[in-house]
Amino acid sequence: MVGLFLLWAFFVDNHIYEDEEEPAPSEIIPHYSPTNFEQPVGFASLEKVHNYGLAHKAVWVNVLNSNYQVLLLRRAGNLRTCPGRLSLLGEHESQEDQLHGKFGEPTARRGLKEEVLRPDDLYKAPIKHLFTSLLTISTGGRVDVQQTWFGYVVYDKPIASVVLNATEALPYAKFYDLGEAFRLVELHSYKFCLPDHRDTLYLKSWALLCKKYQTPSCEKVLKRVQLFDVETDY
Question: What is the pLDDT of residue 227?
C-alpha cells in the first residue's frame, strides 16, 4: 500500500497525466546587441526575448489588393499580445531568415506564406520596403526592443478578403480603403494592436502609400502626409 501511495504521489507532484498536453515549444529567434543591430548575440525563445527585453528584429507588412486597399486582420483571442485587436501582418525574424543576410524581405515573405492561406500565391508578389524604425514597446508585462521593418505587397488580382491561418488571427480578414483605415485608427485607436504607437505602426505607412497611389479616399490624408515624409525605396 505504501508503495502504491508513493507512486500516486509522484504522478500528482509531477503533473503526469495521460490526457494532459505538453505546452507548445516557443519559437527560437535571433537577438542582437541593443546598441548595434548588425551584431548578433545569440538565439533565445520568443518568450525569453520578450520577458528580458532582448533586442530583436521583426517586420510589419501592409497587404494591398489591386485597388490599393489595405488588409486589416483581427488577432486571435488566445494570443498574449493584443488578443482580438486589429493589426497588420507581423512576423519575427527567424534563425533561417537571418541566414539570408538581408533584413526584412525574407521574413516578410515567410510570414505571408505561413499566415495567408488564400490566395496561396500572395507571398510570391514583389515585397517593397517603406521604412525601418526602432520600437521599444511595453505591454502585458513584456518588453519589445525591436528593430521593425515596414513594407508592403500589392496583389495584382481582384480580391475583397483573404483566408488566414487561424492560429494567429481570425480566419477571414477584409480590405479597407487607405483613407478609411487611416481615419479608423485615428478615431478608434483602442481597437488596434499597440495604440500608443499608432503613428509608427499604421499612420506613417498609410500616409506614404497614399502619397504613392493617391486613391480617392486618400485626399484628406495627403494634406497631412508631410508629417510622415521619409525616404523610401518603393
Answer: 56
